[in-house]
Amino acid sequence: MLRGARTLAARLEVHERQALEIARWLQARPDVGRVYHPALPEHPGHALWRRDFTGSNGLLSFEFARDDPALAARFVDALRLFGIGASWGGYESLAVLAELSGRGALPTASRSVVRLHVGLDDSASLIADLEQALAVATAR
Question: pLDDT of 5-37, one tens digit each?
């Protein structure tokens, strides 16, 4: 634990910077309906985040513009650099399907949600992976 703690601040800076870059990239995509990241002004909890926090981390979620649960599953299956899983504490980039209906976590979420943990991989490589997975998922 002590070994990892020495680099924690530097790693969190990379997680935060790259997650915001990817969140903004996803926002610009016509096939993405909504991106959930508290540091984005459009996020429902942004005012609370600004009041209580000075930074963020590598977690974000998004839903597709089209209401098709199979689309999100095809997207996650097509990812190459993002691993599948929900262990958000590491340096790896991960993705998982999140079914949030009825949980109250994101009251505006109406579709299947993909949760991403943006790790320390190069952000351009991660965006390329997301782009190819979007192409595969939306090709049907």
Answer: 888 778 888 888 999 999 999 999 999 999 998
Euclidean distance between CA atoms 43 and 5, whole angstroms: 30
Give the span between the Cα atoms of 83 and 38, in whole angstroms.
23
Residue at 82: amino acid letter: F
Interhelix angle 8-27/123-138, rounded to 10 degrees, is 40
CA distances from 9 to 21, 38, 100 (A): 19, 19, 30
Quote the mean pLDDT of the chain: 84
For the chain, list the domains and their CATH numbers: 2-138 (3.90.1150.10)
Which pair of tokens denotes residue 9?
Answer: 């601040």
Rounded CA-CA distance 43/131 in Å is: 23
Mean pLDDT of 40-69: 79
Question: What is this structure's pTM?
Answer: 0.85
Separation of alpha carbons 19 and 21, rounded Å: 5
Q: Where are the alpha helices (DSSP H) in the chain?
A: 2-5, 8-27, 46-52, 69-78, 123-138
Q: Distance between the two ends of the chain, CA-based, in angstroms?
A: 46
